Amino acid sequence: MECKFISIVLPQFHPFAENDRWWGKGFTEWTNVAKARPLFTGHNQPQLPADLGFYDLRLPQARAGQAELAAQYGIDGFCYYHYWFKGKRLLNYPIEENLKSGQPDFPFCLCWANESWTRAWDGESRELLVEQGYSDDDDLAHIRHLLPFFADRRYIRVDSRPLFVVYRADDLPNPRKTFDLWRNEALKSGVGELCLARFERGGGGGHKDPRDDGLDLSIEFAPDWRNLGGRYYATAKARLAARLGIIPKAYLEHNIFDYRRMVEKVMAKSPPDYPFVRCVSPGFDNSSRRAADATIIINGSPDAYQDWLSRSAEWSLAHNRPEHRLVFINAWNEWAEGNHLEPCAKFGRAYLEATQTVRQRFSA
Predict the structure, then answer these.
(1) Is-above-0.85 flag for pTM?
(2) Domain containing residue 143: CATH number
């Protein structure tokens, strides 16, 4: 039996006018990646790219290199973040060039990252940069913009329907109304039925059935912030130890978790009674972005990642019908979050090789 792997791709690796204005001329994710420094003994920073280098996603060669590596090591497709703010598009150049050129010839789908943009990701300020908003007219304009992507022969389909993911579906003022409009417009255009999904992000309380809002599928998002397995040294005794220099102050200034403990917590969750797809993560460390209060998951390794991916694929085979036997991987290239399958200076292609090992095991 087969389980397919889809990896999430961040398109934030090329300069554009808004980033120049907000963060300085020429800013990309690489700006933060390159300046990172280790905070304690054994801390894997900076995390630097190997085979693909500090690429610029405006270049077709860079986009082709990503797809060639992914195909070689068992990734079945990419899920690109898509940014739409009341008709304003950001970080859109790579995926629109992908559509226009037909290259790379590699399966893909889109996820609408429907959050407002602020400066909060760097831990310094919540100044609003671009505000998200919703309206019926905007819903119509949005789906009409998306239809050419859905019609592309490379576009990933689930249940023979184009898969479109909404990052924060609960933020929509009337999700079912939006999704009904999208479905009707897709049918009228000839694209056909859509497969609409949400990312199931961590937060307070449980997650309701996605079908109640008119969605078809819920996709786990990793790391699951509700199931990180407990922070290291979050005790008064640890604070004293840090003051005495027994443990690094970084353990108190940042939120540090253990990779395998996190995996066990996530895999122990009860299976939901609605259509659900698993997601795994190679790691997480956003200390290159945040001078304080970063989240750092330590003790990760290609072997630990391979175990999580394998168990998630097994779970999918055991719980999902064939069309939903997918595992999402977050992420292909979140370098500033220490979360990437792309080859790095420390591990080389080990995470890709681990993916390939599991993929071969679960190929038809």
Answers:
(1) yes
(2) 3.20.20.70
